[in-house]
Amino acid sequence: MKAIFKVYPWKTAICQIAVILFSLLLTGCYLNDEGPFAPYTDVRGSIMLKPAIDIKPNEATLVGVLVPQHQETTFTFQYRLTYAELAWHDLPLAESFSGSDSIEVRLTIDNLKAGSEYLVTAKGYNQAGVIISSNYISFITPVADYDGNIYQVIRVNDQVWLQENFKGTHFANGDPIPNITDSDVWGELTSPAYCWYNNDPEIGKVYGGLYNFYAATDPRGLIVGFHTPSLSEWMSLSFSLGGDTVAGGKMKEAGCTHWNQPNNGATNRSEFTALPGGTYQNSNILDLPGFSYNYLRETAVFWSTTLFLGETNIAYAPKLRENSEALKRNGGLDTRTGLSIRLVQDWQMPKKN
Fold first, then answer.
1. What's the farthest any 2 CA atoms get from each other in the chain?
2. Distance, CA of 181 to CA of 277 (rounded, Å)
């Protein structure tokens, strides 16, 4: 008689598992520290990161949630510059943790670089091995001008922009920008100057200052590591947002808190948060004498560094209006005009996939 044997791999596997479980019961080695009948959980515990908080130019507070599952579980935050570093900086917490409850841990890090994007992860150790965070987070540190004004920054594709209109009264090296309040004096200038709309600093706190072309393009700069964009850089922003016909809506602050109605197409999808600071311009264009303030809450006009072709005192200044979702290139503004300024970072980040 010929014997026939059939091998059932699933039966073999069940037998192997039964042997392992029986051995665990005999030796007292369980899936966690609570004994053989505790509910099954991840053997090693878990870590999840929350968004960073209290982000400042040179520091931020990291927040994580740890479920230890074992005694003496350690926790280490890890961070690095997203694109300028490959090695992680380890920040181990001094204490260890135990139990199966969620524990929120925080750690403030300093010596960060202003206007930079950081990537954060975390890990832990216990008797079961290494715990790796289930997610990464990233954040961008804000920047400060010489006067101490803090500006949030946003990334749009490979560019990093101020999220607010510039409102400083000094160049980056500490030299003051002349504050000119007389329209006749302003109209004769071919050197840097700024003013507040209607000479009211309270308006400037919201909408920023109005600066002539000479202040916007002065080689001393306005914030270290940032510059007034060229027309090409403005157009790169527009292209990233779908082109001139729709980019304005994605750049404008939504709603009518700071814009007049109807503020057409405003979604602020880019988080650029454009505000309509108006203009201080030659009123001869409007059949009025001297320079005058116009278009607050109606129009946001920003300097570029690009002069109009063949001209020495006429420059491009991209414009957004309350009744349009377009971004206008707006070539042909007198360099004496007072306009808003948005700065872009000197260094471009690698493009997002």
1. 119
2. 17
| Mean pLDDT (whole number) for 148-170 | 97
Q: What six digits make up the tokens of 213? A: 């072309």
Between CA 272 and CA 160 the distance in angstroms is 10
H or E, element range at 103: strand 103-109
How far apart CA 175 and CA 300 sit, in angstroms, is 27
Distance CA 58, CA 161 (A): 18
Report the Cα–Cα distance between both ends of the chain, in Å, rounded. Answer: 68
Structure-token pair, residue 347? 């260094």
Residue 331's Cβ-count burial label (10 Å; 0-12, 13-18, 19+) is middle
Give CA–CA dist 345/151, Å, rounded: 12
Confidence of residue 141 (pLDDT cuts 50, 70, 90): very high
Find, among 238, 176, 244, the residue nearest to 211 by Cα: 176
Q: Would you call 218 exposed, middle or buried from its count of C-beta atoms within 10 A (0-12, 13-18, 19+)? A: middle
Residue with tokens 């503004």: 333
Mean model confidence pLDDT for the chain? 89
Question: How far lies 300's CA from each of 60, 187, 330, in Å?
Answer: 32, 21, 11
pLDDT value at position 80?
A: 97
Separation of alpha carbons 65 and 48, rounded Å = 5
Cα 187 to Cα 291: distance, rounded to the nearest angstrom: 7
Could you tell me the residue ranges of all domains in the chain?
46-140, 143-345
DSSP 284: G
Q: What is the CATH number of domain 46-140?
A: 2.60.40.10
Angle at 204 between CA 271 and CA 151, to 5 degrees: 40
Q: Does residue 122 carry a pLDDT above 90?
A: yes
Q: What pTM was estimated for this model as a whole?
A: 0.82
Q: Are 84 and 119 in contact (CB under 8 A)?
A: no
CA distances from 32 to 24, 141, 325 (A): 11, 40, 58
Rounded to an integer, what distance in angstroms lies between the CA atom of residue 168 and that of residue 148? Answer: 8
